[in-house]
Amino acid sequence: VNVFDDANDKLLNPHQETHQIARDTIVLWAPLYDTGKLKGGLTVYKNSHKYGYFKHVKEKIKTLDKKWTKSYNHVEKRISSKFEKIDLNIKAGSVLLMNSKVLHCSYPTKKKGYVRMVLTERYSPLKKIPFLRDPNAPLNIPFVGVDYNKIRD
Known about the structure:
Layout: E1 2-5, E2 26-31, E3 41-45, E4 57-60, E5 71-74, H1 77-80, E6 85-87, E7 96-99, E8 104-107, E9 115-123, H2 130-133
Antiparallel strand pairs: 1-9, 2-7, 2-9, 3-6, 3-8, 4-5
């Protein structure tokens, strides 16, 4: 469960779902309340999934606006700016399914005193999880610096 309030201090820059158990996953994103211009929501970058995985940078947080984490991964603005941003309006009870290659981020909550809650889950194809094929394989989740386009599950 992700919780976003009107402080907007937990919003991340555009990123793809890396750091998963398999390279390609399906992301389930389900808001518990309607999303939209005032209540915030999910931004996707049109056609970004067609270009594979982009290089992500690990940024150490130096400001207090993201004190909930010490660092996070995202793509640089020069990459995200190449794509059209689409702020999705998703009704409560709906579910968005997207490929882990989709460049995305949250957009801010503008309604004062409002809290947006979202259920998220990631599904990895069972045949693509190395330690399920080989019981001796280590649980190895790729990290920053790995070219995800070269990983062959």
